[in-house]
Amino acid sequence: MAKRSIADSYIRYVNQEVKEKPEKGWNHMVQGFQANKWRARLLPKGNLSRGYQKLEAMMMSLVADALSHKDRYVWGNIFAPCEIMQCFGVRTLSIECLSCYFSGYHLEDYFIDCAQNSGIAPTLCSYHKTFVGAVESGALQGPRYAVTTSLSCDGNLNTFRYLEKKIGVPFTFLDVPYRDDEESVEYLAGQLRDMTSRLEEVFGRRFDEETLRQAIRVENETRRELLKFYELEKQHYYPGEIISQLYLMMGTHLLMGTEEFLDLVRFMVQDIQTYPRLEGKRILWVHLLPFYQETLREYFNGSKKYQVIASDIVLDFAEELDETDPFRALAVKTIRNIYNGSYGHKAEALGRLAREMDADAVIHFCHWGCKQASGGSILLKEKMKELGIPMLILDGDGIDKRNSHDGQIKTRLEAFLEILDAGGEQKEGETC
């Protein structure tokens, strides 16, 4: 209780200081991230498996250490090619993930209001509004560079344009073609080469293509190990939390190609085999993870009855990459991401994933402001109906608590889980 009281007091202190003295508040926010890094390492959560404990500590370290040295990271979205940035000794910090970390200080509503008061449309994704508001408030200072893609959010280009105009952070925009053909691959590979030349200028460091090839070799091995882990997770109870899937997404998008993440996944493959057989239901999660939602935490955190075994945003690409032509390999990886192209394409890919994971059910979270999720959820539901897999569509907000109604989520989730427990199928007209 004393530890929680100290942490809560510090959160309240930083929250108020950011509003009154933004720059000073930011420094204390980063100090808090550093403290949480050591907390995760030295006092891990007892309800988590050992692998997920290590995963949380790694992601806390990624954010805390990068933010402590502004020359050691670039801003990106989660589909930015972190492998190339790593060749220059810098990390990629996704603006969506950073917005989640800001919410740890309960600042998301303040930052969102700052963004909207500056003229940002209320309909913009709340992750982007949180990040823009952090800049508008004067708290968040920019790094030397940023990289984003057209995949898969419409707001990416405008958000990064705004950040460049507001605080002078130059950026590369990678225009990802929808079509998977040789011309499209070469078009994107050319953009990646141009970006690499720009990074040489920004960071004053020569690019070594062999370093990128080695990152792709490590990435291929990591993906093989990760698929082993997911195969084992179909059989074993492996206690985690909703936020554990967010941390896995950070690992597979911000640390892919690093030895440290490969070592962690190898550990998880060994560790999961020491846990008991999974007797509960296997849930495949689609789209974003509202890690703060009380009802979802109650039903899924550490649950033996309902285990979130995978998230589509973690398993959005599962092929082997050709290390001999690294730029082309990264172009192929981006174009073949399940989030690229039509939602019909994604629905087919998720159908295959649900079958491969032996999913008992699918939960699709429609995040406020994400047109793709809202528009495509019915297509996905039709696909799951065709496969005989029950599916629940939940509406809410991945970060702004004011846009999520826990009572409604609780009612819908409990009704869905009752159907799932009874082993029955949803009837025509049911609203789950």
Helical content, roughly?
55-70%
Total of domains: 1
Strand content: 5-15%
* Mean residue pLDDT: 93
Number of helices: 17
Weakly predicted, low-confidence segments: 427-431
Q: Structural class, please? A: alpha/beta
Silhouette: globular
Spatial strand order of the main sheet: 2-1-3-4
Question: What distance lies between the first and last C-alpha atoms, to the nearest angstrom?
Answer: 39 Å
- Number of E strands: 8
Query: What would you report as the Rg, rounded to the nearest angstrom?
Result: 21 Å
Largest sheet: 4 strands, parallel
- N-to-C order of helices and strands: HHHEHEHHHEHEHHHHEHEHHEHEH
Q: Strands, helices and their partners?
A:
Blueprint (H helix, E strand, L loop, with lengths): L1 H19 L1 H21 L7 H18 L5 E4 L5 H5 L4 E4 H9 L4 H10 L8 H11 L9 E4 L6 H12 L3 E4 L7 H22 L5 H25 L8 H13 L4 H14 L8 E7 L6 H7 L5 E6 L14 H10 L7 H14 L4 E7 L3 H17 L3 E6 L9 H17 L10
Walk me through what this model shows.
The strands form two sheets. The protein has a four-stranded parallel sheet, with helices on both faces. A four-stranded parallel sheet has the order 6-5-7-8, sandwiched between helices. It has one domain. The two termini are 39 Å apart. The protein is 56% helix and 10% strand. Helix 15 packs across helix 16. The model is unreliable at 427-431 (pLDDT under 50). It is an alpha/beta fold.
